[in-house]
Structures are given as structure tokens and as C-alpha cells.
Specification:
The chain is α/β, with parallel strands linked by helices. It has helices at residues 12-22, 32-39, 50-55, 91-103, 120-133, 171-182, 195-226, 230-237, 259-269, 276-285, 287-301, 330-339, 353-360; strands at residues 2-6, 24-28, 59-62, 73-76, 109-112, 142-145, 164-166, 189-191, 310-314, 343-347, 364-369, 386-388, 393-398, 414-422, 434-435. Strand 10, helix 13 (353-360) and strand 11 form a beta-alpha-beta unit. The radius of gyration is 23 Å and the shape is globular. The protein starts with a strand and ends with a strand. Bound molecules: nicotinamide-adenine-dinucleotide. The site of nicotinamide-adenine-dinucleotide has 28 residues, from helix 4.
């Protein structure tokens, strides 16, 4: 058994490291910089330590097609984003399928891990594999789908500790794929009845979270108007045994805020126009603008002039304790406040400053606090990282609940009349002026 992982991001790398302890494994990525860093034992996603990378002593990294020809199981974990019209953008998946098609041999297995809509593997990817390899599906080669459930930044639910769904294009392939995953996934596997079922299961897992968070956000919109603290309501309601513990907030990243569009795209292609899923999406996508508006109201209430006010945003990554800034909805708060003429600074110990600037343009961003008794992890500091110099702001928005922020006194960042809006309910009600 020789395994090749295609796409070494948040999903592909941890899995490659698990397989690489037991089997000869090759990690393939088109990003040369990523490969160079991994060869030097550094994972910039901070999911794996250099010790864990070293423990995978049968794992090698490459960008060269020729190096992966000898594999017989290919596992594809490339991004599946949406385009500007919120339709699935299958370009990376198609490109990766072409790559594998070029090196596919008789008897090989190709497993897709990328999140897709039901039917995508067999309808979109398999024809490309067949075309590029000249081989016949389910005769010469087999496919599978095994969705990933990891949660970046979560060091408890790591890949081997999460039960994994597997599936295959024939009963024999399904059994083989299931056995392979079982050998590294400590939490065990669940063999789904078909590839489509496994694809659909993944799509609904994230859609369910999205809809549940949307419900909480809708409650926050209602209670905000009623002058009731949502966190206090949820704490009270949470004492009922079957009340689900979701919280309101921004929904960013490339899973919960993106995957539902894969499902709705497929639903629409068969003539069904989803209502619950899409209305949840609309509510969640509007939360950044709502937070900005609440902050503006607080500024006015506190007697500050809005135009030219200075605001500090705590956190710019898409979630807590994770360096990923892609599709972070914090940017919606920033852009909306900027429209009102507010000058924005961001402080985030996890974000890579250069990446944040590249992704979101010129934002004044700090990633270290001086003298506030916190931070510094060498890996999180980047060249050009600004140092917070004690400047006081008219407004503070707590956008991401990084662990480092918990020990802050939020008042220390603002002027005497400063307004504090806490999106995450990180601080006690008495320390802030408004919460979601
Ligand atoms: N990040 C998560 O929490 C998570 C969880 C479950 C599922 N997923 C799904 O897993 C998939 C991968 O997500 P990710 O977060 O690991 O993405 P990522 O952006 O972190 O990593 C993807 C990697 O694939 C590489 N890549 C892109 N195109 C390639 C190609 N044609 N050939 C080889 N390499 C290529 C990129 O250079 C990158 O290193 C997506 O479908 C995502 O929805 C992600």
C-alpha cells in the first residue's frame, strides 16, 4: 500500500501524518513554499507540531508529478470554495483529478475528502479520471468518498479521534477503503451505503450548524431590539435538558459558511429551491453589518463623533485559536465601520500580518501587545508585525474569542468614554457596553 495525499492543507496534512506513521505516504501539493516548509518540519496552519511531523517517518513531500506515480491509493483534499455568485467553484477539484488521472494505474483507488454536493464525485470527478487515465471506472480503478470532520484549532478532536465516514464505488472498494481508514482512525469508521450518501452526510453536518447558528443570530436580532441580553437568555434556556447549546456569532471560514451553498446549488439543479438553508445563510451573512451598526449606536450614545473615530477590532481570523483568515466575516464589520468613516486597527496574535494585509488590503494590524501580560508564540510573530503601543480607542469590538484575549481588561484599550461591543460574550456584561 502506497498512499498519496493531494492537497496538504488543514485536512490533507494531518491525515498524511497519520498514514505516514504506518504506510509509505507521499504528500503532494502545488504550493512549493508549503512543501519547502513541511520538508523543514514547519506547518504554518499550526495544526501539527514538528514532533508530530517527525513521528510520520514514512511521509515524504513533493510537488513533482513523477514522484506520485508509484502510489496506489490517492486521497484528494483540495479546497472547494464558492465563486462570487456563491456557486461551487470546482476548479481545484478538477485540476487535482486531472493530476491523479495522469498517474493512475490499474487497480488504484481514488478517495475524495473535499466537501462537495451529493453526486459530485461520480458526476464531475470520475469522468476526468477516466479521460486523463484512459482507464474504466469500477473495472480498472475505483473511487471512494470520506469526508473530513476536523475542526481547526481544536487540539482535542484531532483527525484520528473523530469517527470517520467512508464509502466506495463497489462493495469491495468500500471495504478496502474502510479498512485503510480504520487502521489509523482510533475513533473508528462508519461505512456509508454509497458515495452519494457520504457526500450528502457531510453537506448536511455543516448546514445543520449553519441553520442552528442562524436561529441564534435571529434571536440576537430580536433581543437586541427588545433590550434583552441574548447570552443571559441562552444561559437560562440552556438549563432545559434538550435545549441545544448554540451561540450567535459571525459564520466565516470555508466550511459552515460555504458548504450549504454546495447543497443548495445541487437542490436548485433538480428544481427545488431551499428556503430554510438559504434564509439561514442570509441571516448569518448579515451579522457583520449588524455588529458594526450596534457599535456606531454605542459610539453616538457615548457622545463620540462617528466620523474619524478610532476603533480597535480584537481578532481577524475566522475563528478562535486558529491562524486562518480566509473568508473571515470580521472583514464585514471592518468594511461597514469604514463606510461610516471610522479608522480601524486590528489586533490579532494568531493572524499572519502579511497574509491579512494581502487578503483584506490596508488594515492597521498589530499582533503583539506590549506589557499587557500576554502573548508571544514565536511562530505567530511575523516580520513587520506591529507592536501595540498603548494607544486608546473610541470603540473596541471583540470579534474573535482567542484564548489570549480572556485575560485582557477590555477597558484598558479604550478612552474614558470608549464603547465596547462584545460579539463573542467573552467578557462579563459589566465590562462591556453591548453584546450580541
Ligand atoms: N479546514 C477545515 O476545517 C475542513 C474540515 C472539513 C472539511 N474540509 C474540506 O476539505 C477540503 C480541503 O480544505 P482545507 O481547509 O484543507 O484547504 P486548505 O486551503 O487548507 O488546503 C488545500 C491545499 O490544497 C492545495 N491545492 C490546491 N489545489 C491543488 C491541486 N490542484 N493539486 C494539489 N494541491 C492543491 C493548496 O495548495 C493547499 O495547500 C475542502 O473541501 C474543505 O471544505 C475542511
Amino acid at each position: 500500500m502506497k498512499i498519496c495525499l493531494i492537497g496538504l492543507g488543514y485536512v490533507g496534512l494531518p491525515l498524511a501524518a497519520e498514514f505516514g506513521r504506518l504506510y509509505e505516504t507521499i504528500g503532494f501539493d502545488i504550493n512549493q513554499k508549503r512543501i519547502d516548509e513541511l520538508q523543514n518540519g514547519y506547518d504554518r496552519t499550526l495544526e501539527l507540531t514538528s514532533e508530530r511531523l517527525k513521528a510520520a517517518d514514512k511521509l515524504e513531500f513533493t510537488t513533482r508529478l513523477e514522484d506520485i506515480r508509484s502510489a496506489n491509493v490517492y486521497i484528494i483534499s483540495v479546497p472547494t470554495p464558492i465563486d462570487s455568485h456563491k456557486n461551487p467553484d470546482l476548479t481545484p477539484l478538477i485540476k487535482a483529478s486531472e493530476t491523479v488521472g495522469k498517474v493512475l494505474s490499474k487497480g488504484d483507488i481514488v478517495v475524495y475528502e473535499s466537501t462537495v454536493y451529493p453526486g459530485c464525485t461520480e458526476e464531475e470527478c470520475v469522468p476526468i479520471l477516466e479521460k486523463c487515465s484512459g482507464l474504466t471506472f469500477n473495472e480498472d480503478f475505483y473511487c471512494g468518498y470520506s469526508p473530513e470532520r476536523i475542526n481547526p484549532g481544536d487540539k482535542e478532536h484531532t483527525v484520528s479521534q473523530i469517527r470517520k465516514i467512508t464509502s466506495g464505488s463497489s462493495p469491495e472498494a468500500a471495504a478496502k477503503i474502510d479498512d485503510l481508514y480504520k487502521s489509523v482512525i482510533v475513533a473508528g469508521t462508519f461505512k456509508a451505503s454509497s458515495i452519494k450518501v457520504a457526500e450528502a452526510a457531510k453537506a448536511i453536518e455543516n448546514s445543520q450548524r449553519d441553520v442552528n447558528i442562524a436561529f441564534m443570530n435571529e434571536l440576537a436580532l430580536i433581543f437586541g431590539r427588545l433590550g434583552i441580553d441574548t447570552n443571559e437568555v441562552l444561559e437560562a434556556a440552556g438549563t432545559k435538558w434538550n435545549f441545544l447549546p448554540f451561540r450567535p456569532g459571525l459564520v466565516g471560514g470555508h466550511c459552515i459558511g460555504v458548504d450549504p451553498y454546495y447543497l443548495t446549488y445541487k437542490a436548485e439543479s433538480v428544481g427545488y429551491h431551499p428556503q430554510v438553508i438559504l434564509s439561514g445563510r442570509r441571516i448569518n451573512d448579515g451579522m457583520g453589518a449588524y455588529v458594526a451598526l450596534q457599535t456606531i449606536k454605542l459610539l453616538i450614545k457615548k457622545g463620540s463623533s462617528v466620523r474619524g473615530a478610532k476603533a480597535l477590532i480584537l481578532g481577524v481570523t475566522f475563528k478562535e485559536n486558529c491562524p486562518d483568515i480566509r473568508n473571515s466575516r470580521v472583514i464585514d464589520i471592518i468594511r461597514e465601520l469604514e463606510e461610516f468613516g471610522v479608522a480601524i486597527s486590528v489586533f490579532d496574535p494568531w493572524a499572519d500580518i502579511e497574509e491579512a494585509k494581502r487578503e483584506y488590503g490596508a488594515i492597521k494590524i498589530y499582533n503583539r501587545v506590549n506589557g499587557a501580560g500576554v502573548l508571544t508564540n514565536e511562530n505567530k510573530e511575523t516580520a513587520g508585525g506591529g507592536r501595540y503601543n498603548g494607544e486608546k480607542f473610541d470603540a473596541l469590538v471583540v470579534a474573535v474569542a482567542h484564548n489570549e484575549f480572556k485575560s485582557f481588561n477590555p477597558r484598558s484599550f479604550v478612552t474614558e468614554n470608549g464603547a465596547i461591543y462584545d460579539v463573542k460574550g467573552l467578557y462579563d456584561r459589566s465590562q462591556v457596553d453591548g453584546r450580541l
